[in-house]
Write a structure and sequence with these properties.
100 residues; mainly alpha; 5 helices
């Protein structure tokens, strides 16, 4: 039993696997409760994105603090090869559709 506790305490893989098993069981046994817990999954995804971006050095912490404090965010700096105020996104505009 001590060995299992030590593995769960030290192994991220074991923790994620246990969490997945618990999530599947809750979803099967109590589907209404699982639906109510959906925002926790969304929050987990947000935390993961922020953690990875911070880890990779891609998070502008002062700008994030301004946005979270409700202040008006500054425009994102244009990347060297871009034209206009875009922050380098690859969004493509859909062609206009003529309506009759």
């Amino acid at each position: 039993m001590r060995r299992v506790a030590r593995i769960l305490r030290t192994s991220l893989f074991a923790q994620v696997a246990c969490g997945l098993v618990v999530a599947v069981l809750v979803g099967e046994l109590w589907p209404d409760m699982a639906t109510d817990l959906q925002p926790l999954g969304d929050l987990g995804n947000c935390v993961a994105v922020v953690a990875v971006s911070r880890w990779e050095g891609a998070l502008d912490v002062p700008r994030a603090k301004r946005v979270l404090d409700g202040e008006q965010p500054l425009a994102a700096p244009a990347s060297p090869g871009s034209s206009g105020p875009s922050s380098g996104s690859t969004a493509v505009k859909a062609p206009a559709v003529e309506r009759s």
